[in-house]
Amino acid sequence: xxxxxxxxxxxxxxxxTSKWVGRCxxxxxxxxxxxxxxxxxSLARTTRAVTPSRGARPITELGGDAVRHRPTGIGELDRVLxxxxxxxxxxxxxxxxxxxxxxxxxxxxxxAAEAGERVLYASGEESTGQIRMRAERTGxxxxxxxxxxxxxxxxxxxxxxxxxxxxxxxxxxQTLASGEIDGGAGGPAQVREVSAALIRTAKERGTPVxxxxxxxxxxxxxxxxxxxxxxxxxxxxxxxxxxSLRFLRTLKNRYGPTDEVGCFEMxxxxxxxxxxxxxxxxxxxxxxxxxxxxxxxxEGRRALPVEVQALVAKSATPNPRRVTSGVDPSxxxxxxxxxxxxxxxxxxxxxxxxxxxxxVRLAEPAADLALALALVSxxxxxxLPHDLAAFGEISLAGEVRRVAGGSQRAAEAARLGYTRVVxxxxxxxxxxxxxxxx
Length: 438
What we know:
alpha/beta, Rossmann fold, elongated
């Protein structure tokens, strides 16, 4: 009899081990290692060569037609995908629960149906009645949009053969299961089999397939890492539940750039694209207010103006508070130390509050100079000019260093009416303070 092997697999990342452990050795999660069905050990054997039906051809003899993108009708989605969907492409959409993945893809399916294409939307999480209810709310009803509520892989493949769609959307890959593979839906073996079958169908038929993927607690795609290697494009849909703004980013794209960002807004009628989000992160104060400074952040290739606000108040406790929202607390602490050491600012007995407008997060060092000027403005209670924008990295020596995309940031600031720009040309933080009129 053939010897059987029992494997233990992590349900979060797909890591495998020969014996059970309480903590995954890859993602370090507790209680996620489960036993897979025993399988016979494969015997080493020699594979004989088979004469191919079509011989390999020199690359110079192949057609030089470029990959053609087919627009989806959603400008921000096309921007992220590199111009649209490529025939035969496999696209993986991931994101937190409730962020709007299904709503966005249902809108894209309806727009493709309006363009005269047959679209199959297969959902293993919702019934067809629930999908229709959401489609009525978002205005995504069309006769060429076919719905199927299935959790069996073979049945979904049968729907593809019957409908012969030009676009297939599967929501989600973790809810489908194959009867030929042991284990429940969402397990590493099932995810590998389901994704491989759907991607093989996409390549053979030349039909793009969009797969929706669940995410783990740390934000990565659930299941084996092989899933991200198999697909052609990996998109991540993110956003804060407290705000209506959503960002779509590409983590992998074989047909386009990976540094583009699409902006969307969650509304009562569904997901709406935001082609120009310039005014979303700026306050509407009629007169300049102390403790505020505008900067220009880079989201992929897109320059976004963001307003940084700071408030400094006398502390009533021995340990002053340092509260931040939308910025890195460690960088704020470093800037406070530089201000106290290089400019002589007294902050050891002051409460400091720093925030961004609109809920956007600033993680790049280019926002250092705007943070520093906003803090100095709050300390001296003197507002900055309303037409001033600042960007630059601050070193521990008090120098203002250049950042990537400086010319694009300055052009975007000029387009929005910021006639005075303080950047690395100031040289030092003290010179930047003087240029800002503080």
